[in-house]
Amino acid sequence: MQHTLPVIELPSADEDPNAATLLREAAHLVRSEFPAKKIKSLTAHMQSRLTLISIDKGSVVATAGLEIESDCQRAILEDIVVASEYQRRSLGSSMIKMLEAKARETGIATISVTPVRSAVGFYERLGYESGRWGNIIFDKAL
Ligand SMILES: CC(C)(COP(=O)(O)OP(=O)(O)OC[C@H]1O[C@@H](n2cnc3c(N)ncnc32)[C@H](O)[C@@H]1OP(=O)(O)O)[C@@H](O)C(=O)NCCC(=O)NCCS
After folding, report:
1. Other CB atoms within 10 A of residue 119 CB
2. pLDDT tens-digit profile of 43-55?
C-alpha cells in the first residue's frame, strides 16, 4: 500500500500551539526504537536540527532528522523511525528523499548514515554505499 500521509517539518512553538506535544511524541517514537537515547537531550537536538514528522489521527507516526556538519560538506541522517504499523508504505523513503533534497539545496555534496544492521538494505535501495569506518558509515553523493 502506498502512503498518503503528508510529511512536514517539525513546527516551532510560534507556528503551532501543539509544537511541544509533537516534539515530545517524535522523541518518544525515536526512543521506542533506540532506548539508549535520553529524551531531554534528544528533544533539544531535534529542535535545533531539521526534523521531519508525519502525523496520523493526531499522533506522530514517523520522524527523520538531518544534521549538517559545520564545514557544510556533509549532512548526516539521524533518528529515522517509522512506527511499525506504518512501515513498508514508503514513508521512510519519502522522508529520506525530502532530507536529501534539503541537503542538496544547501550545497552539500555527500549525505551519510550509520544504519542499524536491519536497515542496511533499506539504505542500499536508496543508493547509499558502505565504505568508511569499516563499513559502518554509508554515504551517498548528492
Ligand atoms: C527502516 C525504516 C525507516 C524503513 O521505513 P519504511 O517506511 O518502512 O520504508 P519504505 O516503505 O519507504 O521502504 C522503501 C523500500 O525499502 C524496502 N525496505 C524497507 N525496510 C527495509 C529493511 N529493513 N531492509 C531492507 N529493505 C527494506 C521496502 O521494501 C521498499 O522497497 P521497494 O521500493 O522495492 O518497495 C523503518 O522500517 C523503521 O523505522 N525501522 C525501525 C527503525 C530503524 O531501523 N530505523 C533506521 C535506523 S538507521
Report:
1. 14
2. 999 999 999 999 9
CB 110 within 8 A of CB 141: yes
**Is the CB of residue 81 below 6 angstroms from any atom belonging to ligand 1?**
yes
Cell of 98: 525530502
The class (CATH top level) of 7-141 is alpha beta
pLDDT tens figures, 65-81: 999 987 878 999 999 99
Is 3:10 a contact under the CB 8 Å cutoff? no
- Atom 2 in ligand 1: which residue has the minimum CA distance? 92
Ligand 1 contact, 77 CB (< 6 A): no
Place of cell 507556528: 15
Q: Decide: 87 in ligand 1 pocket, CB within 6 A.
A: yes
